[in-house]
Amino acid sequence: MSAADGGYNFAYLDEQTKRMVRRALLKAVAVPGCQIPFASREMPLPYGWGTGGIQVTAAVIGREDCLKVIDQGADDTTNAVSIRRFFARTAGVATTERTDEASIIQTRHRIPETPLTAAQTLVYQVPIPEPLRRVEPSERETRRMHALADYGAMRVLLYEQIARRGRVTQSYNYPVMVNGRHLMSPSPIPRFDNPKLHRSPALQLFGAGRERRVYAVPPYTDVVPLDFEDYPFTVESWERPCELCGAADSYLDEIVTDDAGTRLFACSDTDYCARRRAGEPREVQA
Amino acid sequence: MYVPVKGGEKAIDNAHCWLADNRRGDRDVPELGLDQVREQLGRAVDRVMAEGSLYDRELAALAIKQAQGDMIEAVFLLRAYRTTLPRLAASVPLDTAAMRVHRRVSAIYKDVPGGQLLGPTYDYTHRLLDFRLAAGEPPPPAPEADADPDAPLPGVSELLRSEGLVEDEAPADDEPVGDLTEEPLAFPASRDCRLQALARGDEGFLLAMGYSTQRGYGNNHPFAGEIRTGSVSIVIEPAELGFPLDIGELTVTECQMVNQFAGSAEAPPQFTRGYGLVFGHGERKAMAMALVDRALRADELGEPVSAPAQEQEFVLQHADNVQATGFVEHLKLPHYVDFQAELDTLRRLRAAYADAGDEEAS
């Protein structure tokens, strides 16, 4: 299915379409956190499975790039394998499972534990780009609210959670303010990953195919979770480290190991976990 | 030219003759056998059985052939046949935990006892037209599984339940289960009747309704706790015998959705469930059904009813595609008489309007 087996353009999309996506991305980078409409195409995988991320990746990938794809932090889950194989076939690019080797990382639901660098681009697959959707179902209305920076309803939602439950119960997709102006959905990453969005040296691109929106966080941009002075933003924590590599600083998956309900807690970031087990030092780059 | 309004009988006969010819298509092409439909259009057969509420692969194949692949027409044919059948017995509830599983995936745990079983699925196929199929190339033989297909797999929601994290399903009671094919739907409808209506409901309609709940109309973000497809035994327990009899098996798809916690003065915060079950291999329908089932529980769980998918009457009155298509298409029937009455009224109104205008002008 690559150019070699006939018929398809480099990275699947035709050049006109890629140019259209790139224009939308440029606008998105220029106005951090603002959702930019784009003419999303039908892709050969279902809407909601990463069509936005795939179109963004296809628009920015070049022959020299090295692509990593993760789903829930893991390189070996079915959807990640499927998308990585798609680009290996249609673009013939190198792929990797190692965070530090990748120039483009397409992700669903996680930001890698290994810190990213200025040479890397993180592409998010986004199901619901509109952070206000859960307080306002109408697109027309939410566009107006963004234009006026009218984010009171979102604050009320968080306030109501505190009033009812004594805490913010938003456990993932925790809304953030970008560059002090736009309220943004960080995509369904756990709260745990929100701090990694802030002032990241990597370019972060978000693609929502079904909802036909892209948005971006340029490098070193402020990304601040919405919270209250007396109820500051907190992240998930575990009482134990990863049972495979001993990491105490990573997001853990709960794995049921038998019918009796025995659980194992292990890093969701499979590359991070594997490299720690192999005894490799954690990459720390400026 | 005078347009005749009588003589429909001959026209109907001719139309049906033409239809039969049209259905047969080019007579140089071999005729489609029911076995081909049954074996090679399996998902169509499953859908027609599910919405037709009759589990019979052969009859569903016939309906699909007869309807030229028009799925709602095929459902209609099966439903109409179904009403002529005597009701011999009611089975005991299916034990889906004892299912011989072909496919089972959970989206909430990375691994579960028994493992994730992808089974035969379109998931992860790249949607590229396969021209080898057009060329009639036979598929390679499927690899054999190591796992024992008969080993029962514990339900994933049971794992949550044992920790008290998900609500218990309502305990079995002695109330007979409602049956919409025997009694009219009454509102508010009980959950058993709602589930039956959804199981018979149109896949496209339920899909759109379920989708709307995900997009923000009655937001209730769910997790697919488990989707499983496989064969289950049908057991009846005739009163005169006093012991259960296994009378055969059928393929079903079951979906347990796990939804974000409710919680009230009486109940601690916990996950709640939405449930879907359909005949055959029908994940899209089972998942949509589970989403809508959960949305329809808004009242019971003390949630505001603000979106279409949460409105019992709206959903249940419009989910049935046989009812819906009949009423929409009845507009093709003659309406000469009522239209004549409308014409008369409209002409009088216009005359009065013109008179009023004349008076103002004078």
Automatic annotation (TrEMBL), chain A:
Pfam families associated with the record: PhnJ
Main enzyme class: lyase
Record bears the keyword Lyase: yes
Reactions catalysed: alpha-D-ribose 1-methylphosphonate 5-phosphate + AH2 + S-adenosyl-L-methionine = alpha-D-ribose 1,2-cyclic phosphate 5-phosphate + methane + 5'-deoxyadenosine + L-methionine + A + H(+)
Keyword Cell membrane applies: no
Keyword set, alphabetical order: 4Fe-4S, Iron, Iron-sulfur, Lyase, Metal-binding, S-adenosyl-L-methionine
GO molecular function, one term: metal ion binding
Recorded coiled-coil stretches: none
EC number: 4.7.1.1
GO biological process: organic phosphonate catabolic process
Top-level taxon in the UniProt lineage: Bacteria
Signal peptide: none
Family from the record: Belongs to the PhnJ family.
Functional note: Catalyzes the breakage of the C-P bond in alpha-D-ribose 1-methylphosphonate 5-phosphate (PRPn) forming alpha-D-ribose.
Name the UniProt record assigns to this protein: Alpha-D-ribose 1-methylphosphonate 5-phosphate C-P lyase
Taxonomic lineage of the native organism: Bacteria, Pseudomonadati, Pseudomonadota, Gammaproteobacteria, Chromatiales
TrEMBL record, chain B:
GO BP: organic phosphonate metabolic process
Record-given protein name: Carbon-phosphorus lyase complex subunit PhnI
Cross-referenced InterPro entries: PhnI
Cross-referenced Pfam families: PhnI
Region annotation Disordered: where it falls in the sequence: 134-156
Keywords tagged on the record: Lyase
GO molecular function: lyase activity
The keyword Lyase is assigned to this record: yes
Species, as recorded: Sediminicurvatus halobius
Domain of life: Bacteria
